[in-house]
Each structure stands twice: as C-alpha cells, then as structure tokens.
Amino acid sequence: MTFVRERGRSRALQRMGGLLAYSKPIPKPGIHTRPFWEGTKNGKLMLPRCDDCSMVHWYPRHICPHCHSTNLSWMEASGKGTLYTYAVQHLSFGPWAEEAPFVTAYIDLQEGDRMLTVLRGVDPNKPEEIRIGSAVSVEFEAASDEVSIPFWRVAEEG
Amino acid sequence: MPAALSRAAAIVGAAEANEIGFLDEPVTALQLHIEAIKNVSEQTGIPISRIEGVFSTGWSTELCEHLGITPKYIDTTAVGGCSFEMHVHHALAAIYAGIIDVALISHGENGHSARKIGSGGGNYGRGAGTASPAAEMSMAYGLGSAPSNYAHAMVRHMHRYGNTTEDYAHIAKVTRDWATLNPRAAMYSKEKHPFGGPITVEQVEESRLITWPLTILHCCMVADHGGAVIVASPKVAASLSTKPVWIAGAGESMSHGNMLEMGDFTKTSARYSAEAAYTMAGLGPADMEMAQIYDSFTITAAMTAEMLGLAAPGEGHTLWKDGTAAPGGSLPINTNGGGLSFNHSGMYGMPLLVEAYRQLSGTAEDGVNGDKGKQCDARTCVVNGTGGSLSTTGTLVLVADDD
User: Fold this and answer.
1) B366 touches chain A (CB under 8 A)
2) What pLDDT does B154 receive?
3) What is the predicted pLDDT for the residue at B370?
4) What is the DSSP string of A112-128?
5) Can you give the pTM of this predicted structure?
6) Which stretches in chain A have pLDDT values below 70?
7) How many domains does chain B have?
C-alpha cells in the first residue's frame, strides 16, 4: 500500500466526516450533459450513443461525430476500460498542486472512445511500473451535492 | 475588366438553427452552430464530411472537433459583425486558389440564453453559453500547462516504438548545439544565460521533472519574441533588393482541439498538411535540404519529423541522435536553436518563418554582428508549426531563389 493511497483515503474519511470539503475544480454540468452527471451521482457511467450507427462517443455532442446523425441517446456503460497512455504531473497549478506528483491518464472505454482521468491505484514515483493496456475500472467521488466525479483505478492483480 | 476572383465561387445554401429568437429553453452557442450546420448540410445535400474549409468567429477548432472533421482550411477571423462577409471573401480566395471546393461559414450566438445560463468562460466572445463539453469533461483532472498534455503523447510514442527518454534527449542536446552558434539565442552561452551554453544528454535526462517523462530540458522556454514577414507578388518581389524565398507549397489541417479527441497519440495532422504542401510544391521529403520544426518539446520535434516524411514512424529522434540534424549534418533542423534554446514566446510559428527566410536567402547570420556560424547551403526547407495540444498544423515548403 503506497503512501499516496493512504493519504487519499485519509482525506476521503475527513471529507465523509464533514471536516474537509472537496478542494479540486468541480465541473459545472451543462444543459446537455445532465444525464451524465445524474448518472455519476447514482454510481452509473452514462455514455452518449448514436441511434443510427450505434457508435459511442465521448465527450457528449449535439451530433454524432462518426455519421453526423442527430439521433442520440444515453446508455449505461460497463465502467471498464484499458489504459491508453499516462503521464506523471510533477508541476501542477491551483488546487491540484498540493497533490503532485499524481498520475493523469487516458482510458480507452470498453464501449469505445476515450476518457481523461486522474489514475488511482498506481505509484506516481514509479512511472515505469505503470503498464499501458492495464485493465481499469471507474469509481465515483462525491465532490458536491450536485456533482460526483468519475475517476479510474487500475485493477488489483490476481 | 472583372478581377480574377470574380465569380470564382458561389453561395449554394443557407440555413438557420432549429429554433431562434427569445427561446424559453436556454441553448448554447455551440448548439446553435451545430443545428444550422446540420440544416444547411441537409438543404444542399452536401454531407458534413465533405466540408473542407471552416470559417467562423473564433469557433473553427471547436466546430471541427465537435463534427469530427479534419479541414484543409481554417479561418477564425473575428472582427465583429462584419466578420461573416469577410469569411465569404476569404472562402472565395481559398476556392479560387484551388485549396478547397467546399467552405462552411457558421454562426451561433446565444445572446438571450446566455443571460440565463451564463457565459461559462471560454474565449469565444459574448454569449458563448456554457463552456465546451470537452472542457467540462476535462477540467476536473489537474491538467493545464502544455507539458501536462504533451507528456501523454510521449509516453504512448515510447510505448509503441520501444523508445527511451534518452532517445528524445538527443534532440535537446543537438538543438542547444545550434543555439551556441547563434548569438541571438537565449541559451547561446553561459555569459548570456546562467543555464546557457552546451548541454549533454545526461544533463537533459537529469534536469528537473515537469511532467514525467518530460524534464525541463525536454521543454521549450517561455520568453519574449516579436517578428514579422512580408509576402508579395512576383512582380513586387522583382523590384526589391532583398532576395525572395518562394512559397512552393502550403497546407494546413487539424485533428482535434482537446487531446481527448486526438485518436492516435503518435501521429499529428502534420501528415495531412505536409502532404498538401508537398503536392502543391511538386516536391517530397527527399527533396528537403533543411527543416524548421516547432519544437515545443523534444517529442513534438520527433513526431513532426516523422509526419513530414523526414524519418520513418518511431525514428524521428534518430535524425538528431546520428547527427543528421546537427551543425554540419546533411539535414539541418532548427538552425536558430529552436524553441528549446533560441526563443519561444508561447506561439513559435513566427520564429520558424524568420529563420527559414534567413537561411534560404543567405542571411542566416545572427542578424546583429555578422557571425556566420549557422548559415547552411540548403536550397529547400520544410517548415511546420504545431498549435494547441498537438492539435493544429501548418506546413510550408520554401525554396531559395534561382538567381
């Protein structure tokens, strides 16, 4: 168990006890992205999918970027994916600065397309041990009453 | 007699967003754009995928990314309400020039709804509505600076091709060697800057981490720079005492704005802008005797060299590692010392042009005291600028005057 994860857990416990508010930037749900944020609040990863070509896309759009149909709906995703690439942020600004170093990553979603995250379950001080292609799963952190933010975690081995 | 551009193009359709006016349900400016684009596409029968040029008041990157298209011509002229008439003018010129056949001019502005939902930030002017969905889905994760983004591409590039950070460090070392020949370079010498003068690959590797795997010497500087060039007709050029450098080819493209949409992180749209520029010039990578490449980071230079066809995929760094790009090498690259060691103010496109002009016109001394250390004998040069997060690219093929 790494120091960083311990620190994260302790912060989460403090927040649960109402001692420490979520201190990082919190997205403001847009008028077209509310189904996504309703989903995260309820522990679900909702993705936009085209009714005509069946392709999933991320981020949410007004039009399918694959076939340009405007017949779009939301589907509940598996919350599973693989690690496409990553980096370790040593120099960060604003509220994230105190967390540095931390690992950012792009996740290839099982249903298609890609999502950005801060990756959990890895040691930022041993970047060469992080493996591209690793299985990852989503988890949600309540940042406010309105917004729960998805984060991805590398699955435990074995 | 009408000018050559007269009737060189026509407006073939016009449409609006589904609902306009004082809308009860607030809309974003982006939605208004997209609805109007969809509607004019259906009206004309021209699929959105056939749009080659996008003209808007600052929105073009956002629109192309949202539509998932890779245009050949991008114009974001934003000078107020008359911008759209200017867009028509620019589109006419682009079509007359044979660069594109299908131009989209788009407008979306939620002056009414913005009072309900706020402007939401962004740099798209009044009434932009909420921030872009791409920004909304990225802002929670602590990215911000350029290296915080670009490092992800470097890790993927290393993974795909089995390269090490040391491979890319050679780019920083060799580019610094060029800077030591250029008294105007910020990193010319220890006397000029405490961290100036020659550096080793080991020093690059061991310097301070910014975003792993990028150490600070893998990153360009942020300094002050100003520059300007003049482009003129052959007739005017013939009347001047300065040597012309001919624009043999030009191309542009983009693949995304936000890296979420980049697709393959080991490739940039320079492969498209370069193809267009080479085709226009009737020349290819093998004909290039020099390159000026935006080296925001070592990885940017390596990837771009691959996209320009100067090296095989995954082998861009070898141009620097084996001395090809170095002073005295057969394909000099970034002869001023680059964004890594000459100067980089935030947007490096202008220093690329200035150095390419100086080299091909035989005036690549430092511009101050006659030092001739970096002048090369190249007669052709490929110039490529990268913008955003490996997002947009412009490529030029420049050739020296015959005289």
Assistant:
1) no
2) 98
3) 53
4) SSEEEEEEESS-TT-GG
5) 0.90
6) 1-20, 157-158
7) 2
Q: B219: which chain A residues are within 8 Å (Cβ-Cβ)?
A: none
Do the Cβ atoms of A116 and B35 come within 8 Å? no
The one-letter amino acid code at B91 reads: A
Shared domain for B184 and B235, answered yes or no, is yes
CATH topology of domain A22-154: OB fold (Dihydrolipoamide Acetyltransferase, E2P) (2.40.50)
Could you tell me if B33 and B113 lie in one domain? yes
Mean pLDDT (whole number) for B240-250: 93
Pairing of strands B53-55, B73-75: parallel
Q: Which residues of A touch B62 (CB under 8 A)?
A: none
Distance from CA of A57 to the nearest CA of B (A): 10
B203 occurs within a structural domain: yes
CB contact under 8 A, A102 and B142: yes
- Rounded to the nearest 5 degrees, what angle is found at the Cα of B136, between the Cα atoms of B130 and B140? 140
Report the Cα B106 to chain-centroid distance in Å: 22
Residues B286 and B365 in one domain: yes
The DSSP letter of residue B121 is S
Within an 8 Å CB–CB cutoff, is residue B141 touching chain A?
Answer: yes
Last residue of a domain, one of B137, B161, B196: B137
pLDDT in tens, A18-57: 556 899 999 999 889 999 999 999 999 999 999 999 999 9
In this structure, what CATH number is given to the domain that contains residue B124? 3.40.47.10
The pLDDT-based confidence of B301 (bands split at 50, 70, 90) is very high
Contacts A70 to B, Cβ<8 Å:
38
Neighboring chain B residues of A26 at a CB cutoff of 8 Å: 140
A24, A65, A87: residue with CB nearest B212: A87
pLDDT range class, residue B372, cuts 50, 70, 90: low
B248 and chain A in contact, CB less than 8 A: no
Contact B139, B266 (CB under 8 A): no
Same domain, yes or no, for B256 and B389?
Answer: yes
Beta carbons of A91 and B147 less than 8 Å apart: yes
- Interval B7-45: pLDDT, tens: 899 999 999 999 999 999 999 999 999 999 999 999 999
Provide ipTM, 2 decimals. Answer: 0.89
Domain that holds residue B313: 174-400
Å from A151 to nearest chain B CA?
9
Buried b (16+ CB within 10 A) or exposed e, B333-363: bbbbbbbbbbbbbeebebbbbbbbbbbbeee
Q: Is B379 among the domain residues? A: yes
More confidently predicted of B112 and B323: B323
Least Cα separation, residue A53 to chain B (angstroms): 15
Q: What pLDDT was estimated at residue B117?
A: 80
Q: What percent of chain B has pLDDT over 70?
A: 94
Same domain as B390, residue B246: yes
Looking at the fold, whether B121 and B196 belong to one and the same domain comes out as no
> What Rg, from alpha-carbon coordinates, does chain A have?
17
User: What is the structure's pLDDT at B6?
Assistant: 87
For residue A144, the chain B residues in CB contact (below 8 A) are none
Whether residues B97 and B182 share a domain: the answer is no
Closest CB to A85: pick one of B47, B134, B155: B155
Inter-chain CB proximity B130 and A27 less than 8 Å: no
Q: Mean per-residue pLDDT for B193-219?
A: 98
Residues B133 and B183 in one domain: no
> Going by DSSP bridges, is the β-strand pair B291-293/B392-400 parallel, antiparallel, or unpaired?
unpaired
CA distances from A123 to A58, A91, A142, A157, B51 (A): 27, 16, 23, 14, 45
Q: Specify if B149 maps to a domain.
A: no
Residue B384 lies in a domain: yes
